[in-house]
Amino acid sequence: MPTKPKTILEVESIPRVDIDFMNNTHFEEIEKVKELGKLVSAYQAKDTHTDAETAEITRALKNWLAHTIPHFERENQLMQETGFPAYPVHSNEHDIALNKMKNIIQAWEQNQDIELLADYVFSLWPSWFNDHVNTMDMMTAKFAVMNGFDPHTSK
Ligand SMILES: [Fe+2]
Ligand SMILES: [Fe+2]
Fold first, then answer.
1. Contact (CB, 8 A) for 29 and 68
2. In a domain, 107, yes or no
3. Please, which residues have CB within 8 angstroms of residue 38's CB and are 6 or more apart in sequence?
4. Of 75, 102, 107, 111, which is least surrounded by CB within 10 A?
5. Could you tell me the CATH number of the domain that includes residue 134?
6. Is the entire prediction scored with pTM above 0.90?
7. Ligand 2 mean position to 94 CA, how many Å?
8. Contact, 99 vs 65, CB < 8 A?
9. pLDDT for 55-107, tens place per residue?
């Protein structure tokens, strides 16, 4: 079976927003997904897998989730601090994305379906993340800076 095309986001090409801490968080996230992507590709390339290889992917997924939770919380907090009018829309996108990620991790733990996981890591998530940064995060950062938030705040 031919492998599907894989989208791997790069720090160099992800859209930049107007606030440093948001960009830094996005760069960290992309690095985590790249590491996970390597594990997923290596797993796909083999017919049999050890428990340790499976556990390594689970660990990388949980590590990613542990980064995504504060990432979204910090942006939600920024929106509240600055009175961003589209707060409900942006925070709702976060809620949906977080639920999706939790469901994917749970499905992986139950079934170890590598193709399902690969579709998320190499297709669904990259397209979601790129769009989200380009729209919601971009507008949130612009609004915050216009309303006096220091763009160089580092966290
Ligand atoms: Fe973000
Ligand atoms: Fe966001």
1. yes
2. yes
3. none
4. 111
5. 1.20.120.50
6. yes
7. 6
8. no
9. 999 999 999 999 999 999 999 999 999 999 999 999 999 999 999 999 999 99
